[in-house]
Amino acid sequence: MRIGVLTGGGDCPGLNAVIRAVVRKGISTYGHEFVGFRDGWRGPLEGLTRPLGIPEVRGILPRGGTILGSSRTNPFKIDGGVERIKANLADQGVDALIAIGGEDTLGVAAKLADLGVNVVGVPKTIDNDLGATDYTFGFDTAVNIAMEAIDRLHTTAESHHRTLVVEVMGRHAGWIALHSGMAGGANVILLPERHFDIEQVAEYVDKRFETQYAPIVVVAEGATPVEGQMVLQNQELDAFGHVRLGGIGQWLAEQIEKRTGKEARTVVLGHIQRGGTPTAFDRVLATRFGLQAIDAAHDGDFGKMVALRGTDIVRVPLAEATRELKTVPIERYSEAEVFFG
Ligand code: F6P
């Protein structure tokens, strides 16, 4: 069998570990051949390929990013896109495709599967918000990076008697904020799932200043205050209509400073959370996803996505990947709230 592999959407530590596992097992156990498609769905759309064999995956396990490149190209938004993909897959003699990506990439994979393309999906996102799997690789790495930043910010905040607001990624789900904030001992954690009251945040900050410690506020980029409290100045949107990083963190620091009379600074971690080497947890999860994905392709079990359920790697219908966004439940937030202030 000749199998195409692509990575789509925002990059994520562990993508290379999936590619390596797919190729290593695909060649050594099953004798399949591979072709890499470059830059997500743009690869099969424009016929952009690169060789993918044992030499190409050597040494990539600890490397962040993706050797195949990525993009947010959606062939369903391009005239004749699907036909071009089918023609290019046929040109390349590709029998099956393994698509590694988040909601958007897997959404395309699910629609293509319905149209008869042989696809297997592998879920990835640092946001950990895909409903069909207990965890996605990349999340643990992002949380550890954010936790280390918070640890470092505690000491500088204390030295200067300042509040430090740490803005982490998470537009729709606050998993990174919740986990890094809990692990890093934040004094307040703000998530997109629950509107916050800026007066209450300022009270927590004030309370913290009563001890020898300085407050650390962790905020997910998608968090917003209760209605009427926020006027974001200079809010810029990117080409996809998303609020640019730095919006809410900056606003919070200004408001906290105004209410407490003490200096506040903002640190926007941004894409640092997506870069560099994956943690051991993410390398193992990504490798196990890759092994299951190549098994599914070999079995001809198409239209499926691999997923973690408990400690098992299972196959679920691709359609499930995009069915439900997994947000932080209120009970999980309540656990963190015990430590606020
Ligand atoms: O979905 C992953 C993610 O890193 C989000 O946490 C973040 O909101 C978004 O991608 C940023 O996208 P981009 O890299 O396109 O700016």
Automatic annotation (TrEMBL):
Its main location: cytoplasm. Pathway: Carbohydrate degradation; glycolysis; D-glyceraldehyde 3-phosphate and glycerone phosphate from D-glucose: step 3/4. Mg(2+) binds at E103. Pfam families: PFK (PF00365). Diphosphate binds at G10. Substrate binds at T125, I126, D127, R162, M169, G170, R171, E221, R265, H271, I272, Q273, R274. Non-allosteric. Its EC number is 2.7.1.90. Keywords: Cytoplasm, Glycolysis, Kinase, Magnesium, Metal-binding, Transferase. The record marks D104 as: Important for catalytic activity and substrate specificity. It is found in: Cytoplasm. Coiled coil: none annotated. It comes from the Bacteria. The active site is at D127. Its cofactor is Mg(2+). Residues 2-296 form the Phosphofructokinase domain. It catalyses: beta-D-fructose 6-phosphate + diphosphate = beta-D-fructose 1,6-bisphosphate + phosphate + H(+). It is an enzyme of class 2 (transferase). The record marks K124 as: Important for catalytic activity. Belongs to the phosphofructokinase type A (PFKA) family. Mixed-substrate PFK group III subfamily. Catalyzes the phosphorylation of D-fructose 6-phosphate, the first committing step of glycolysis. Uses inorganic phosphate (PPi) as phosphoryl donor instead of ATP like common ATP-dependent phosphofructokinases (ATP-PFKs), which renders the reaction reversible, and can thus function both in glycolysis and gluconeogenesis. Consistently, PPi-PFK can replace the enzymes of both the forward (ATP-PFK) and reverse (fructose-bisphosphatase (FBPase)) reactions. Homodimer or homotetramer. NCBIfam families: PFK_mixed (TIGR02483), PRK03202.1 (NF002872). This is Pyrophosphate--fructose 6-phosphate 1-phosphotransferase. It comes from Planosporangium thailandense.
